[in-house]
Every structure is written in C-alpha cells, then in structure tokens.
Design a protein that fits this description.
Layout (H helix, E strand, L loop, with lengths): L1 H15 L2 E2 L6 E2 L4 H9 L26 E4 L5 H13 L2 H14 L7 E4 L4 H7 L3 H13 L2 E2 L3 E3 L3 E2 L5 H8 L3 E3 L8 E9 L3 H12 L4 E9 L11 E2 L1
Parallel strand pairs: 3-10, 4-5, 4-9, 9-10
Antiparallel strand pairs: 1-2, 6-8, 7-11
Helix pairs in contact: 2-4, 3-4, 4-6
The chain binds zinc ion (ZN) (2 copies).
Length: 236
C-alpha cells in the first residue's frame, strides 16, 4: 500500500515537473526504474573496509560494533548526484529516490528500528533539509519499519577534510542516546555517506552502551578516504 502511495507521489511530481533521468536521460522520473534496478544490481558484495567477499558488507575481521553494513556503491556517477543533491540543492525528491533504492536493494529484519545519524542544526539551517532524517523517514515509509531519532549530538563538529586519526579523536563522545533501547530489536543507523566511518561507529558505540545488542548501518554511498586529507576539524 505504501509503495502505491509513493508511486502516486512519484507520478504527481513527474507530472508537475517531468525530469530527464539523471542516469540515462529518459524523460519521466528523476531516476527511471530501469536505472534504479541496474544500480541496485551492482551493489557491493564485499567488505566496506578491506574488499574481502561478504554478503553483509563487513568481513569477520571488521564486523563488531556494527554487525551489518549496507551501501549501494562508491560516491561517483549517479550515487554522487544522489548524496550531493540534498546538500547543495535541498532536493527532497533526491532523498526519496535514494530511500527507494535502499529499500529495493536490501532486506531488513522485521521489527528493526531506523535511527538517523543526527545532523548538526547548523547544517540543517544551511541546507534547509535534515537529509539524514529525511532519508530515514522515507526508508521507514518504504519498509514499514519504525523510525526513532534516539541519538543526539553533544556538540557540533565538522569532519570534512579531517584526517582519520583526528576524526576518531574529535568524534569520541559526540552522541548520547535519548530514550530507552529495546535489546531485542535490531537498530539500523542511517546516513547518506560513509567515509572513515568514525561517526557511524561512535553512534553504534553509544547505542551499545545504552543496551542495543544488534546494530546495522545503511548508507547510500561510500566516499573512498584519501590519506592526504589532513586538514584539522573544527569544533564549536
Ligand atoms: Zn534511466
Ligand atoms: Zn574487512
């Protein structure tokens, strides 16, 4: 039923403002069904960190704080436009397409809880959209899973361009958990992009400390991390 509603919404949006597909150029939807299916069929079958084969996004060496890590591919081409779109253009429709693809690509456990990684208020004001919360909202509508914003930021931090080591230090203690955690449920952290994973892992650590036993993560794209990125982070 929900998919019918979303299809109707897609149809209405396309009728109001028809798009060329951002992948193949066909007029109709922002990303046509054929291109969605093709991108989903190319989803990674290896570990996020070491490229060993894995159906759950993490090899046995790298699973731990996070048990399963799903992402659609590296941040390039269409996926780059999907993760950059909401930040640069505040395109809510882009978020809807990204959520649609995550729901198409992956099977989530019933009774799981979607937890958006908190975005700083400053970034929400700048972009006019809380893209992570919006992504979790649309994924919740697509999958029927509960969405709970149980994570809060303790402070504002900017990680773009920071080295892996600095990111890990600065993000320590950056989140706290608001509200009770049900240890029988799977908690699925939702973000648009993963680079070093420090924010995601710190969020997972906070959830575990609050009582969560099983934690998954889902992202739209992976940004390959450059060791040349050494600019310091800013904390306010
Ligand atoms: Zn297309
Ligand atoms: Zn690995």
């Amino acid at each position: 039923m929900q998919n019918v509603k979303n299809t109707m919404l897609d149809g209405l949006l396309s009728w109001l403002a028809p798009h060329p597909c951002i992948s193949c150029g066909a007029i109709g939807a922002l990303l046509c069904d054929e291109c969605k299916k093709y991108i989903v069929s190319c989803k990674p079958a290896h570990c996020l960190w070491c490229e060993r084969l894995s159906g759950v996004g993490l090899c046995s060496k790298h699973a731990g704080i996070v048990d399963v890590f799903y992402w659609l591919g590296d941040r390039k081409g269409v996926l780059r436009r999907l993760v950059d779109g909401p930040k640069l253009l505040a395109q809510r429709e882009v978020v809807l397409v990204a959520a649609d693809m995550l729901a198409l690509a992956f099977t989530f456990p019933s009774g799981a809880v979607l937890v958006p990684l908190p975005t700083s208020r400053r970034h929400v004001r700048m972009r006019g959209l809380d893209h992570t919360d919006s992504l979790a909202y649309h994924l919740s509508r697509q999958t029927g899973l509960l969405r709970q914003s149980v994570l809060r930021r303790t402070r504002h931090f900017v990680q773009k361009g920071a080295s892996r080591r600095i990111r890990a230090v600065q993000v320590h203690g950056a989140f706290w958990v608001k509200g009770p955690i049900d240890p029988t449920r799977t908690y699925i952290l939702v973000d648009d992009i993963v680079t070093t994973g420090t924010s995601m892992y710190e969020a997972a650590r906070s959830l575990r400390e609050a009582g969560a036993k099983t934690i998954w993560a889902v992202c739209v794209a992976r940004q390959k991390f450059s060791t040349k990125q050494t600019q310091s982070v800013k904390i306010t």
